[in-house]
Hints:
GO molecular function: nucleoside diphosphate kinase activity
Strand content: 5-15%
Protein name: NDK5 kinase
Helix content: 40-55%
Radius of gyration: 21 Å
Number of helices: 8
Keywords: Kinase, Transferase
Number of strands: 4
Order of helices and strands: EHEHHEHHHEHH
CATH superfamily of the largest domain: Nucleoside diphosphate kinase-like domain
InterPro entries: Dpy-30_motif, NDK-like_dom, NDK-like_dom_sf, NDK_H5, Nucleoside_diP_kinase
Distance between the termini: 28 Å
Domain Nucleoside diphosphate kinase-like: 12-150
Amino acid sequence: MQMLMPEPQIFVERTLALIKPDVIDKEEEIEELILRSGFLIVQKRKLHLSPEQCSDFYADQYGKMFFPNLTAYMSSGPLVAMVLARYSAVSYWKELLGPSNSLRARRTHPHSLRAIYGTDDLRNALHGSLSISSAEREIRFMFPEVILEPIPTGQRARDYLNLYVKPTLLAGLTALCKEKPADPM
């Protein structure tokens, strides 16, 4: 009788979180909420961006009316950049953040982080990546030394497990069974 094994799945996704300059004094409190929400803080650093670096980071917002204010605000003091990991990290982080406008967040999502810590549309306390691809780009920007390998999912994950993990496990477990050591650990 053959035992049925559940299909292997990889549940980790990464996203970028920024604690913005106006709430840097709430760093520990915010990190505690992040951890209690099931995230793992994979990397963290405190930095102070120049207006030019902020312009590069928010390049997709270039040309919008609020862009000069955004770059001035984001370069006004230190911030904390974190790589967060968990299952569906991007969507869970966006949900925890709430709407980007803190005033609207207070009305529609009163328990969200932006409702609690933000003050208005610009000073909304925290940043979150909008998608997996933007998360990868933003993580590379804030952590240039990090090596981001794509996380295989679906068929790619099954192929990886079948090609690399299962044969290694099978060889190791077979050798263990043949040896039958007194203490297999």
